[in-house]
Amino acid sequence: MRLVVISLAALMLPATASFADAPPSGQERARVMAALAAVGCSDPREIEREEDDGVIEGYEVEDAKCADGVYDFDLDVNFNITDRDRD
Q1: Angstrom distance (rounded) from CA 46 to CA 71
Q2: Number of other CB atoms surrounding residue 28 within 10 Å
Q3: Structural domains in the chain, sorted by start
Q4: Which among 61, 6, 9 has a CA at the least distance from the CA of 38?
Q5: Are 84 and 40 in contact (CB under 8 A)?
Q6: Strand runs (DSSP E) across the chain, as ranges?
Q7: pTM for this structure?
Q8: Deepest in the core among 10, 40, 51, 78, taking most CB within 10 A?
Q9: Nearest to residue 77, comparing CAs of 62, 55, 44?
Q10: In the chain, which residues have pLDDT < 70?
Q11: What are residue 56's DSSP bridge partners?
């Protein structure tokens, strides 16, 4: 029985991993960059598309350079900044 449970758990891992965060498309990246530029920031280290069960929930930006420091940003699906944290 234990072997069956372990086997089933192993089979579920690839399906779960397919819903992980992903890099944005070129168009999504351009819209994220435009939102950052609108608040005077640029050159993020990383941009990720946040997904849950294949549904896009927003975007996460790490280490964007702004005039007063380096920030992480969260954007919603409409590319509106919803959170800004100084790094």
Answers
A1: 12
A2: 18
A3: 20-86 (3.30.505)
A4: 61
A5: no
A6: 41-42, 46-52, 55-66, 69-75, 81-86
A7: 0.76
A8: 51
A9: 55
A10: 1-20
A11: 51
